[in-house]
Design a protein that fits this description.
The protein has helices spanning 3-8, 42-58, 72-76, 100-112, 125-138, 246-255, 265-269, 300-306, 335-351, and strands at 11-13, 19-21, 29-33, 35-36, 39-40, 62-68, 86-91, 118-122, 142-146, 148-152, 155-162, 167-172, 178-182, 197-201, 231-235, 259-263, 290-294, 311-316, 329-332. The chain is an alpha/beta fold.
Length: 354
């Protein structure tokens, strides 16, 4: 299936089941729906919500675009509550797992026939791979990792961090559609309910030649993904070495299986912890209900990744550490003395039913 063929033949399903080209201009903003194993990811709710807010300002509606295996359409119906007026779902057994080239051509085809002014993706691992492919097929620019969207003189202006989060750039577009990826956990899930009409279709033709994913395996250990956990315990270079990481793990274990481990960039760069645990501008942006920053000074790069946490607890022996400027609760002290007491108190409270 060539790019030209897909882009020239975007199809939808009419009420009687026959195929027809999508009417141009039917929607203003498109939102890509990320799924895994047939389940809609939390990032999809954020992207659809951001699209709904943008569509309101532009005077239009939202189309959610999804690609996956059989049955995904039924799963995607929930996005109507987030603001999707129409939910277009490309289903096929061969699409159950993410295939970069197939997904890119299918999404580009849907976008080319939709008359969209903007197309939003999550800046997740999948979105970071897919969004530039779609932009390239459409021959339009991409603004990645956006933290703000606004309409100025009828056009979209995107705010995105630059120079490691030390500054922010405002970007306008000179081509349509505007393709944008959104930083996870920055935009809230949508609350503007819409019709949520689901249109399922089977993409015509086979997958383009190229690489094909044959299997996905979860990381060993069965730990909670730091980007999805409601509680995160992060450690910094104040721990002095990887042999002392048990101090952080003890606090995490006291909190229970729902808590995840996080790390600062300095820790990851030193090889103490895997990159998948890094919180910050060049790691993962998170928004847990409870965040522990232990022996982390709070460099701007780190703050960019966790400052939207609902409650922040910081432990650092430097009373002037920047982390205390964003913390809800702060303890000035040695992490090797404070963390064990913190873990013991958490266990005591949990055993007492607190």
């Amino acid at each position: 299936m060539s790019a030209a063929a897909v882009l020239a033949e975007p199809m939808t399903m009419t009420e009687d089941g026959s195929e027809a080209k999508m009417e141009s201009g039917a929607a203003v903003v498109a939102a890509f729906v990320e799924q895994r194993d047939g389940s809609v990811r939390a990032t999809a709710h954020e992207v659809v919500g951001a699209a709904a807010e943008l569509a309101r300002d532009l005077g239009g509606e939202v189309h959610a675009l999804a690609v996956g295996g059989p049955g995904l359409g039924a799963e995607c119906g929930q996005l109507g509550a987030r603001g999707a007026g129409v939910i277009r779902v490309a289903e096929g057994a061969e699409l159950a797992q993410y295939q970069a080239e197939s997904y890119a051509h299918i999404v580009a085809g849907m976008v080319a026939g939709g008359g969209y002014q903007a197309v939003l993706f999550p800046a997740s691992a999948l979105g970071a791979d897919l969004a530039p492919r779609v932009a390239a097929l459409l021959d339009v620019p991409l603004a990645s990792d956006a933290t703000g969207l606004e309409v100025v003189d009828g056009g979209l202006v995107v705010t995105r961090p630059v120079y490691g989060g030390k500054a922010f750039a405002r970007v306008a577009f000179d081509a349509s559609p505007a393709v944008v990826s959104l930083r996870p956990h920055v935009f809230p899930p949508g609350t503007r309910a819409a019709a949520g009409r689901v249109e399922v279709f089977t993409p015509a033709g086979g997958a383009p030649a190229g690489g094909r994913a044959v299997d996905f395996r979860a990381a060993s250990g069965g730990s909670v993904d730091v980007a999805e956990a409601e509680i995160v315990v992060s450690g910094g270079r104040g721990l002095r070495g990887p042999e002392n990481w048990g101090v952080i793990e003890d606090v995490r274990d006291a909190l229970g299986p729902a808590a995840a481990l996080g790390a600062s960039r300095a820790v990851v760069d030193a090889g103490w912890r895997p990159h998948g645990e890094q919180v910050g501008q060049t790691g993962k942006t998170i928004a847990p209900k409870l965040y522990f920053a232990l022996a982390i000074s709070g460099a701007i790069q780190h703050l960019a990744g966790m400052r939207t946490a609902r409650t922040i607890v910081a432990v650092n022996k430097d009373a002037d550490a920047p982390i205390f400027n964003v913390a809800d609760y702060g303890i000035v002290g040695d992490v090797f003395e404070v963390a064990p007491v913190l873990a013991a108190e958490i266990r005591r409270l949990k055993s007492a039913g607190g």
